[in-house]
Write a structure and sequence with these properties.
This protein has 503 residues and is mainly α. It has helices at 8-11, 17-32, 39-61, 82-108, 114-132, 136-154, 161-192, 197-206, 212-232, 242-248, 251-276, 290-308, 314-335, 342-370, 386-389, 391-405, 411-425, 429-455, 467-485, 488-494, and strands spanning 72-73, 78-79. Strand 1 and strand 2 form a beta hairpin.
Length: 503
């Protein structure tokens, strides 16, 4: 006999309502776009759909929305908890700002295509699903939903050679990394007999040293999954695609990609490693992958910050900066493998991702504002004297540079404080010290941007004032300052975020 179909309570649709609405909205708009000649309306409807999903996600995070008692949806495939809701909020805010900063850029560069906004929404839905996945197969599908729209968006400026090259590099290396992820998932399934994280964690915590084959399958599987997700978050040595793709893709795409890819990638990282694969060696305390992640974090911090010093183009500078910031979040991920620190490490990662979303999208939005229609005008020379021509633009960029450095009273400082505190709680003091030292190194190239805008003479040429891009800049600058001045907002948001629900 066939099993009974799941009931509405089993599906618990309300728990997944933000991502369901976003996906359905994008699907309907994909058809409607064929009949809409003025692409302004496609952008407006996209922003409306993202806004509706964001409002629901905020209600969920504030415990004002009934999500049911089970904490899961779709028969356990979807995990509905505070961690999921915070990831939803950050991904949706990134999508909303991404739409705002894109419209005028696409219009003046003759790239005004309705599918741009639809692909952006599908990518956000993928990031949201990665943060809520309770099953390895769902993580893979969510990763592809996140990635494939980004591959297309990177090359949307065809026939420009740089854009096509960035899309090809991103696609080929992304497909290559996905094969590592799938192979790792297959090995974990072979060892645990399940793709469900709740069942995998039982095997990971009870397996003994005598069960060598099963144990090695789990360890190798965890390693291959780390390679696949490491590519997505641009961790060293899986970072090679980042500078070329960030430079070649249209700047609003780069701005959005730099945030949403990290949100989805690190959310899945935390779900898989901290929740599903906390493999403990006999006689040990921390998970066996902690040392590996410490090495990856150290290499990512050093390479990202040191190579960024030598960059002349702002998009490449921010690309290596993005690599470096992946290293800071990797510190929190490594701390999550130490008993008793998993939840605080997850909260630190969420705080950092929220702060980084406002700051990095804002920095790229400034680059988009000064970029010429032929995609030139993004070098250090092009911002000399910007404070004279566009003082508000230079002021916003200064806020973002100080936040990326980790200067107090900015969101970036709060994010780094949380990450370093989690590292200290986990006993990873050398990694925390390295994080502080590399933050000091990063001040050189971030302050150099500010110096060029205020203290160098030049003839910075800025396009006419752009209303919607300006709105996006106001939101990102305000968010960067408000989260820095009122850190309790983030603290209250992530306070109940936990990855221990399955243990």
């Amino acid at each position: 006999m066939f099993p009974a179909p799941p009931t509405f309570e089993d599906l618990n649709v309300w728990a997944a309502l933000p991502v369901i609405i976003l996906s359905l909205w994008a699907s309907v708009l994909l058809v409607a776009d064929r009949f809409i000649n003025n692409k302004f309306y496609v952008a407006a409807y996209s922003l409306l759909g993202v806004g509706i999903s964001l409002v629901i996600a905020l209600f969920q995070a504030g415990d004002l929305f009934d999500i049911g008692e089970s904490g899961t949806a779709f028969e356990g495939m979807f995990m509905a908890d505070q961690f999921t809701y915070v990831v939803n909020i950050v991904a949706l805010i990134s999508a909303a700002i991404g739409i705002l900063i894109s419209y005028e850029y696409l219009e003046r560069t003759k790239l005004d295509r309705g599918e741009y906004y639809i692909l952006l929404m599908f990518s956000a839905a993928g990031a949201m699903l990665m943060g809520s996945s309770n099953n390895l197969s769902m993580i893979f599908i969510s990763l592809e939903l996140l990635s494939i729209p980004l591959y297309i968006l990177s090359g949307i400026r065809r026939p420009q050679e740089e854009s096509e090259e960035s899309a090809m590099k991103y696609f080929l290396l992304g497909a290559f990394s996905s094969s590592f992820l799938v192979y790792g998932i297959a090995l974990v399934f072979g060892a645990a007999g399940s793709l469900d994280l709740g069942e995998i964690v039982v095997v990971a915590q009870t397996i003994s040293e005598q069960e060598a084959t099963q144990r090695y399958l789990l360890l190798i599987g965890a390693g291959l999954i780390t390679v696949g997700l490491g590519f997505k978050v641009a961790a060293v040595p899986f970072h090679m695609w980042t500078p070329d793709v960030y430079q070649g893709a249209p700047t609003p795409v780069t701005a959005y990609m730099s945030s949403v890819a990290k949100v989805g990638g690190f959310a899945a990282f935390l779900r898989v490693l901290v929740t599903g694969l906390p493999i403990i060696a006999e006689g040990g305390d921390a998970a066996v992958w902690v040392d590996t992640l410490q090495i990856l974090a150290a290499l990512t911090l050093l390479l990202g910050n040191l190579v960024a010093i030598m960059q002349y183009d702002l998009k490449r500078l921010l690309a290596y900066s993005s690599i470096a910031h992946a290293g800071y979040i990797l510190i929190a991920l490594a701390a999550g493998g130490v008993p008793g620190v998993g939840d605080s490490a997850a909260q630190a990662a969420l705080v950092y991702l929220a702060a980084y979303a406002f700051t990095n999208i804002g920095a790229f939005a400034v680059v988009a504002a000064i970029e010429k229609d032929d995609s030139t005008g993004t070098t250090m020379d092009d911002i000399k004297g910007l404070a004279v021509k566009r003082p508000w633009l230079a002021g916003a960029m200064s806020v973002f540079m100080f936040s990326l450095t980790g200067i107090p009273l900015t969101a970036g400082f709060i994010g780094k404080f949380w990450v370093f505190r989690a590292a200290m709680d986990a006993g990873l003091e050398p990694l925390a010290v390295l994080g502080v030292l590399t933050s000091a190194i990063s001040a050189f190239y971030y302050v150099r941007v500010v110096w060029n805008m205020y203290f160098e003479t030049g003839d910075a040429v800025v396009p006419e004032r752009q209303q919607y891009l300006t709105s996006g800049l106001v939101i990102t600058a305000a968010g960067t300052l408000i989260l820095g001045l009122l850190p309790f907002i983030l603290e209250n948001l992530v306070r109940d975020a936990s990855l221990a629900i399955l243990r």
